[in-house]
Design brief:
TTC5_OB_sf, TPR-like_helical_dom_sf, 16 helices, TTC5_OB, Tetratricopeptide repeat protein 5 OB fold domain-containing protein
Length: 403
């Protein structure tokens, strides 16, 4: 990538390297993930469990224009996951623990669809009978029963799942379920307050989890505390952070820290300031010019015409045009590809980048830099090769549960 063209462009490369910190050692990450996910060395049930997680990631992130295409894709991937599970030799599913795991995974794979499946409930019921300590099996069973409208039974399953230990996913589902149960009942206020409490507990387990924040604010909306929700101190601070609206995020987290110290918002303020300070140090030239020149000059050209992108393997069509960061427009940049240096010998190609010109002041200090954001791992190529789901870390945000 020709980010080093012209005076001051190396500073842009500095931030690009930092803002892509997840990929700062991509070469080593790829090698490590490949070694860890060697099918010959991995237990059969581990492979099946990973397939189930990939299936649910697909469910939560794949939304084509035609909803029927989504169902068809889920059906295809579900069939593949079930075939992998069925390939486990019978002698490896004899013990009660093995049988419980098998039933759990089978029920979970069958329940990936938005509609209720009795077969999924039957397998999940067998799983919790064989091994009542399987928290995720109870969670899956609760979600499955919820789809057929038995909210009380679903709540019992989720409560039993939570008894196994604190879990943000279970807490979020309980929060959403109790919000659903509160509609049109006498003890509405009590159920909504319980819903809020579950969401707050989920947030304390992981303050960066968008699902927990979503459950919390949706429940607040159900209480019609609109004036409180949309007041400047608390509105959208977590979302603003990840959208790089740092000024709003800092103001929101700082006010939240004063309002409720239990949410660890002060720690989030410090993390954002630390990131901004690191960027500022790079922009001030605290990295040797000789080193930066070496990084920029060693960039190797990548011909996007030879790549192809799909859900399973990234496909870059010949319509993608390589550009420098200076040619990007504020917001999404469709059909453009930006190349960057990770380390000598490695190259990062970013497709359809989202560009922001960050400019803010905080505590009498001014920050200004250019930033690129990518929302999906399919937008990333390392040395011209696509990343796999196992080589990435995902954060998902759900608006609501649709039984």
């Amino acid at each position: 990538m020709a980010l080093g063209q012209g005076k001051g462009k190396l500073s842009d490369l500095c931030h690009l390297l930092l803002s892509s910190s997840y990929f700062s050692s991509a070469s080593e990450r790829v090698k490590e993930c490949v070694n860890m996910s060697n099918p010959k060395e991995e237990e059969p049930f581990s492979r099946a469990a990973r397939a189930a997680e990939d299936l649910y990631h697909l469910r939560d992130t794949y939304f084509p224009p035609n909803p029927d295409d989504r169902i068809s894709k889920l059906q295809h991937e579900s069939d593949l996951a079930l075939n992998l599970l069925d390939s486990i030799p019978p002698e490896q599913r004899k013990s009660p623990t093995q049988r419980a795991t098998f039933e759990h995974l089978r029920g979970k794979m069958l329940d990936v669809f938005p509609d209720y499946r009795k077969e999924a409930e039957d397998h999940l019921s067998k799983a919790v009978k064989l091994n009542p300590s399987l928290a995720d099996a109870w969670l899956c069973l609760g979600n499955c029963i919820w789809k057929k409208g038995d909210l009380t039974a679903a709540k019992n399953c989720l409560s039993l799942a939570l008894d196994k230990g604190p879990n943000k996913k279970i807490l979020c589902q309980l929060s959403m379920l109790k919000r659903k149960m509160s509609q049109g009942v006498e003890n509405q206020a009590e159920l909504v307050e319980e819903s809020i409490q579950h969401a707050k507990e989920a947030i304390t387990l992981d303050v960066k989890d968008g699902n927990s924040w979503s459950a919390y604010w949706l429940t607040k909306l159900s209480l019609r505390k609109v004036d409180h929700i949309f007041s400047p101190p608390v509105a959208g601070r977590a979302v603003n952070k990840y959208l790089e609206n740092y000024q709003r995020a800092l103001s929101g987290f700082e006010a939240a820290a004063l309002k409720d110290p239990g949410l660890n918002a002060a720690e989030e303020v410090q993390k954002i300031v630390s990131l901004l300070d690191k960027v500022d140090n790079l922009l001030k030239g605290h990295v040797r010019a000789k080193r930066m020149t070496s990084l920029a000059s060693s960039l190797v050209a990548v011909d996007c015409k030879h790549f192809s992108v799909s859900l399973a393997s990234v496909c870059v069509k010949s319509s993608y045009r390589r550009v420098t960061i200076d040619l990007l427009s504020e917001g999404p940049n469709r059909a453009l590809a930006v190349e960057a240096k990770i380390k000598e010998g490695d190259q990062l190609t970013m497709l359809d980048p989202y560009f922001r010109d960050v400019d803010l002041s905080w505590n009498e200090k001014h920050y200004q830099f250019k930033s690129i954001r990518l929302d999906f791992y399919e937008q990333v190529l390392v040395n011209g090769k696509a990343l796999t789901p196992q080589q990435t870390v995902h954060t998902s945000i759900y608006a609501q549960h649709k039984p």
